[in-house]
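Figure 6 in text form: structure in, sequence out.
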């Protein structure tokens, strides 16, 4: 089962967009738009021009979240919810106008204010958002039918060009494009939000922060340079702000881009706040009109009044958002009782295309080796000299003849003395026998 998808960045930026629109209404109501353009008003100019992108940021957040849904009966659920919020908050706004400001309206005027979204000055923005939700499934289908990043970027450029360049393309005081083209700017914001949801990760947050500062600084410098000495509110420049507002909205989406969908307390807080922020857009205008005189009386000095009002706007938004959530309790009860299993069809996002690797450069041709020089001819060896003749050895002298041994002369008989003893006779016999043996 596909659970309902929530994105923290879209919820945070959606609430921020509503607060920017309330700040813009505060600057207009408090009279700061009629201040002269001087060097001291540069912070005010920068804040006002950034707040001008609130409507475009709201459209881009819708495209960021709703661009995944397919066309089905369930895709109209947000439409019915917004219609209910607009009706109940419109009736509440008319009641506040009657109680706090003493305005007495007839039934015809009440009905006209409700269906024309004119109960407050900011009600027309709620009507714009409702119209955008009706066309959201068709815009999403058209976006996803384009399969490549280049085709989707071209779709964004064409829609942004038609909707934001209408005030710029003037010829003899008349625009080359019909006036209804400028009403397509929320659709350009929706397509831009869908594009950033798919491709915002292609750049770093430093990239988006740098270009956001550049765009804001360029707008502020243009106002200071062109309108120096005049009042801050310059209708022609406000009408030209659509293209820079679209750029700022997309850069903010890229800066806060996150695909994290964990069910944390922070997610639940901003998700609930986004459900009531539309009520803050409808009711905050009246609360600002009611509190401005009190703030101006308490802080007569312009700078103190300006910063006190900047601090009061978030408080007003929190109170109106809380009131909007209470007004939606019947819707929550009906959904809890009659809604079936939460399931919606989503476009399956194709994986990000793998960039083609850079072509491998052809290797430099291997230079042919230098020809091997022929070796020097081996010199013929010197002729080996013939060896000296071996002298014949001296004749070996014949050995001297071995002299023949002298013949053994017979021993001379020894004169034996006559003895009369037998032992002497025996010794004599033995000696003679031994002599014979030697011979």
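Output sequence:
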């Amino acid at each position: 089962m596909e659970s309902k998808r929530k994105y923290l960045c879209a919820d945070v930026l959606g609430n921020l967009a509503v607060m920017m629109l309330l700040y813009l209404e505060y600057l207009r109501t408090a009279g700061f738009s009629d201040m002269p353009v001087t060097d001291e008003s540069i912070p005010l100019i920068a804040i006002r021009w950034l707040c001008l992108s609130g409507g475009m940021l709201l459209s881009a957040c819708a495209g960021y979240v709703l661009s995944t849904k397919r066309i089905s009966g369930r895709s109209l659920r947000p439409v019915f919810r917004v219609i209910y919020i607009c009706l109940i908050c419109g009736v509440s706004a008319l009641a506040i106008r009657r109680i706090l400001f003493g305005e007495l309206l007839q039934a015809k005027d009440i009905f006209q204010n409700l269906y024309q979204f004119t109960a407050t000055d900011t009600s027309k923005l709620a009507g714009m958002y409702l119209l955008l939700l009706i066309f959201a499934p068709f815009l999403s289908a058209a976006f996803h039918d384009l399969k490549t990043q280049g085709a989707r970027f071209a779709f964004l450029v064409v829609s942004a060009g038609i909707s934001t360049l209408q005030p710029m393309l003037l010829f003899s005081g008349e625009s080359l494009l019909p006036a209804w083209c400028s009403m397509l700017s929320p659709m350009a914001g929706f397509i831009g939000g869908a594009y950033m949801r798919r491709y915002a990760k292609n750049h770093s947050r430093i990239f988006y922060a740098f270009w956001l500062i550049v765009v804001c600084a360029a707008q502020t410098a243009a106002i200071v340079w062109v309108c120096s000495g005049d009042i801050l509110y310059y209708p022609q420049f406000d009408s030209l702000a659509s293209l820079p507002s679209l750029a700022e909205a997309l850069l903010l989406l890229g800066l806060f881009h996150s695909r994290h969908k964990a069910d944390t307390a922070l997610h639940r807080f901003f998700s609930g706040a986004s459900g009531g922020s539309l009520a803050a857009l409808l009711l905050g205008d009246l609360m600002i009109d009611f509190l401005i005189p009190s703030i101006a009386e308490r802080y007569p000095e312009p700078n103190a009044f300006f910063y006190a009002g900047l601090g009061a706007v978030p408080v007003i938004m929190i109170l109106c958002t809380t009131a909007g959530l209470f007004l939606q309790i019947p819707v929550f009860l009906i959904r809890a009782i009659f809604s079936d299993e939460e399931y919606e069809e989503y476009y399956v996002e194709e994986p990000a295309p793998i960039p083609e690797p850079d072509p491998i450069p052809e290797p430099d041709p291997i230079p042919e080796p230098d020809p091997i020089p022929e070796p020097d001819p081996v010199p013929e060896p010197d002729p080996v000299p013939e060896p000296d003749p071996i002298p014949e050895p001296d004749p070996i002298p014949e050995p001297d003849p071995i002299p023949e041994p002298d013949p053994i002369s017979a021993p001379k008989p020894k004169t034996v003395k006559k003895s009369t003893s037998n032992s002497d006779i025996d010794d004599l016999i033995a000696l003679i026998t031994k002599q014979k043996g030697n011979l």
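Caption detail: The two ends are 140 Å apart (CA to CA).
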